Amino acid sequence: MKNFSWMTAFIFAVIIAALVYLLPTVSPGLWPHKKINLGLDLQGGMHLVLEVDTEKAVESMVDRIEQDLRTNLKKELIRQVRVDRMDKTKISVLLQDAGKIEKFDEMLDKEFKELRLLSRSTDDNGLKVVLDLPANESERTQKMATEQALETIRNRIDQFGVSEPDIRLQGENRILIQLPGIRDTNRAKELIGRTALLEFKLLDETNDIDAALKGNVPPGSQLLYQVKEDRETRRASKMPFLIQKSALLTGANLKDARVQIDSQYSEPYVSIDFDNKGARIFERVTGENVKKRLAIVLDDKVYSAPVIQEKISGGSARITGSFTTEEARDLAIVLRAGALPAPVKIIEERTVGPSLGSDSIRKGLLSMWVGGLLVVLFMILYYRVSGVIADAALVLNIILIAAGLAGLQATLTLPGIAGIILTIGMAVDANVLIFERIREEIKVGKTARAAVSAGYERATLTILDANITTLIAALVLFQFGTGPIKGFAVTLSLGVLSSLFTALIVTRKIFDFLLIHRRMKHLSI
Questions:
Q1: How many domains, the chain?
Q2: What is the pLDDT of residues 265-299, one digit of tens each?
C-alpha cells in the first residue's frame, strides 16, 4: 500500500509538472515564462550562408608581421632601406648594413619563427632578404579565422536575443546560420557581417594631407574618412584624415561596451572599458602623445579624432557619432562579441515567411491528429476498456513530450512533428505487447489480477529492449546530426522516455486501481 501511494504521488507530480511547463505555450505569460520554441520551418525567419574571406585573414596576419618587423628592426638598431610586401604572403627587407645579417637572423629566430627565409641577394642598394609565410602556417591561419568567425557570430547573435539559432560550419570556410522568428533581416545582416575591428591610431601630422588626397600617400600611413550625416537633410559629408597605419591599441583588449546618453546633447554614444592590459597601454599611449590627435577607427572608418589633452588613466573611452539608439546598441554588441578575423560575405540568403511556417504547422498538426485519431479508434474497437486506458496514456504521452520541449527550451521543427507522430505509434505498440500477453494469460485460466501482473512482468523486458535501442539511435542522431535531424532526435528521445513511463507505470497503476480498489472481476480486453 505504501508503494502504491508513493508511485501514485510520483505520477501526479510528473503530470502537474508537465502541465505547468505546457501552460505558457497555451497561455503565454504564465510561469515559467517559457514556451515551445518553433524552428525556422514553422515560424519563419532567415537562412544565411556566409563565406569567410580566409585569404584576407592571411593578408592581415602578414600585415601585422610587416609592422612588427619594422618595430623590431628599429629596436635592434638594424638600419633598413625599406620593408615591403611582395605578394600576399611575402615580405621583402632591404638592409643597408650587410654586417648586421647575423643580428638580423637572431631576431628572426627569436621573434619571427613562423616566417621562412626564401632568398638573399646583394646589389648596390644593400642586402635584400625575402621572407614568406609557409603553406602550413597559412592554412592554420585560415582554419583559425573560420572557427573564430563562427564563435564571434554566435556571440553576437546570442546578445542580439534570437531564440534557438542554428549556427554551424559548412565546409572549410562557410558558416550556415538559421534565425527563427527574425523579421528585421537587414539589421540582422548588418550585425552579423560587420567586421568590427576597433583600432586607436595617431594622426600623421608631419605629412601633407593634400598630397595624400592626390594619391601620394606616404609609406606607413593611410588615408581614411569620417562620414557624418545631417539628420535633417539626410546628406552625408566625408572628412579625410591621414593616419598612421600601426595601431597603438585594438579592440582585442576591450572588456565592455555599453550604450549611454550624452547629458549635454542627449545623444547616444558607446562607452568602452579596457581590461587591465588595455588600460595600461591606453594610459601610456595618451601620456606619450599629449597634444596629438588620436583617431578612433572602426572598420577603416574614423569615428572621432580628438586631441589628447592629458594622460588618461582608468581605461575608459567613448565612441561618438550620429547614432540612433538602435545603431549604438548594435555597435556595442559587435564590440563586446569581438571583431571578425576576416570579412564575411553572404553567398546564400533565404527568408521564410510566417505564412509558410503557419501552413507547415497546420499540415503537421493535421497529420498528427488524423494519425492519432485512427490509432485511438483502433485501440478502443480492438481492446475495448483496456484500449481506452491505452488512449489516455497516449494523450498523456503527447503532453509530456510537449512539456519536455518547453522545459528544455528545445526547438520544435517539422521533422520534430514527424518524431511525435512516430512516437504515437511506438507508445501504443508497448501497450499492444502488454495486452496480448494479458490475453494469453487469461486464456490459460488465470484471474484478471494475475493475468495483468504476469502480462506486465513478461512484456517489460521486450519493451525495454526495443525502446532503449531506439533511444540509443536517437542519441547518436542528435550527436552527429545537424538542424532538422537534431529536431527529430529530440522529440523521438522525449517520446521514448515518456512512452516507457506511460506504458509501464501509468497504465499499470490504472489497472491496479480498477482491479484492487474497484474490485473488478472481469477485464475488458
A1: 3
A2: 788 999 999 999 899 999 999 999 999 999 999 99
